[in-house]
Write a structure and sequence with these properties.
The chain is built from 7 helices and no strands. It has 169 residues and is mainly α. The termini are close together.
Length: 169
């Protein structure tokens, strides 16, 4: 029975990832704030990672990262590598070192989303040939960080509810 519940949970996570990928990529479905849409796959990968062991967390981090790279005009590999490694680390530390609760997940999620998008800006979004890089950061990246973080609490509660309803006995 344990394996069946785990399998069903992983299928549900996969459906959640696919649904959020489709929602993120559908024009006009989510309102744009100053021309920016959220990256819904970042908070879903993080919330799955804090509830799962390191291997499934890493796999879902890889899938979410690859979908971010493929679907949202980023260079292949940035989100894939980053989310794979981070989700592995989150799954490992959540299982071994801290209690998964709302506050811990929000801190992990907020720091992760902020650092990933700031790194993305520093690597790909700024440069000597880009005038007014600071204004671009504030108008585009800062808004994207805040808009993405709005989805972190509902995804945490959804995955927590889902996880608690399918806990292995």
């Amino acid at each position: 029975m344990d394996g069946k519940l785990k399998f069903l949970r992983y299928i549900a996570y996969a459906l959640e990832v696919i649904l959020l990928y489709v929602i993120s990529g559908t024009p006009g479905f989510l309102p744009e704030i100053l021309g920016v849409k959220p990256l819904l796959l970042l908070p879903v990968a993080i919330t799955i990672a804090v509830f799962e062991n390191e291997t499934p967390a890493m796999i879902f981090g890889f899938i979410c990262g690859a979908l971010c790279d493929i679907g949202f005009d980023t260079r292949i590999g940035f989100y894939t590598i980053a989310l794979t490694l981070l989700c592995f680390a989150f799954g490992y530390t959540a299982r071994n070192f801290f209690v998964t609760n709302f506050v811990n997940a929000m801190v992990i999620g907020a720091v992760t989303v902020t650092v990933l998008l700031m790194l993305h800006f520093l690597i790909f979004g700024s440069g000597a040939d880009m005038p007014h890089a600071g204004g671009h950061f504030v108008r585009h990246y800062l808004v994207k960080i805040l808009y993405t973080l709005l989805f972190l609490p509902p995804l945490y509660w959804f995955n927590r509810l889902f996880r608690s309803s399918m806990v292995e006995v």
